[in-house]
């Protein structure tokens, strides 16, 4: 966990800042004394009270996502995402470390907030392609996913958090909010972004993985997905750009099973029924992944 990122966080109980975590310490503490245990994998659960009413991804769902992404099937999406984020940072003058801070100290590095980081795979690809020139915060509601994310992105601050609640981040501190197939709390994203910051959102397009939708039990995608996205972030954001990403895939039965389990449908699938359907598949199934990468600027 990088202490330089902690400066951007606020305690969800009192709204005050957190103190630096010293070597050997096992808790994240705010200056008013509220304490949150650091899990042995490195993430911190900031949810208090009743936590959240939403269902988190299970251990099986997180494992399926990791297995599928590790196969490199969505590497082209990661490339497009990294190029988009780099462009947003360049436009805002946020890439690189300046020495123009007080008393010659380096200014804070650009900060990326991965809202719905999951197992941290997309964030890892982004950090690698940006040569580690940015700091990062990863938020997700699933501790099972964050166990993997914290190991994968040890320098990032990985937090269990409900994206529909006020984010534990100071206003105006973030350069890019990244949302890959996750809930979009537009008002909170606008609050934590700098005026020059950008919201980058990845959504599936109609027809995404249509070839395996039936055996994998995938949920349908609304025809007006992009229009609904733009309307959903009004009045906080205006659409700046929108780019399609299309990836031809060749999937084996295990890949299809992992696709089924790693998404929202994984909360409802019957494992025995899924195994039966996947067993009937041929050795290879051709499919097409279709995404849109959208960039929004704060109004």
TrEMBL record:
One of its GO terms (biological process) is methylation. One of its GO terms (molecular function) is metal ion binding. Signal peptide: none annotated. Zn(2+) binds at residues 30, 34. InterPro entries: Methyltransf_25 (IPR041698), Methyltransf_Superfamily (IPR050508), RlmA_N (IPR048647), rRNA_m1G-MeTrfase_A_prd (IPR016718), SAM-dependent_MTases_sf (IPR029063). Pfam families: Methyltransf_25, Zn_ribbon_RlmA. Residues 112-197 form the Methyltransferase domain. The keyword Coiled coil does not apply. Keywords: Metal-binding, Methyltransferase, S-adenosyl-L-methionine, Transferase, Zinc. PANTHER family: 23S RRNA (GUANINE(745)-N(1))-METHYLTRANSFERASE, METHYLTRANSFERASE. This is Methyltransferase domain-containing protein.
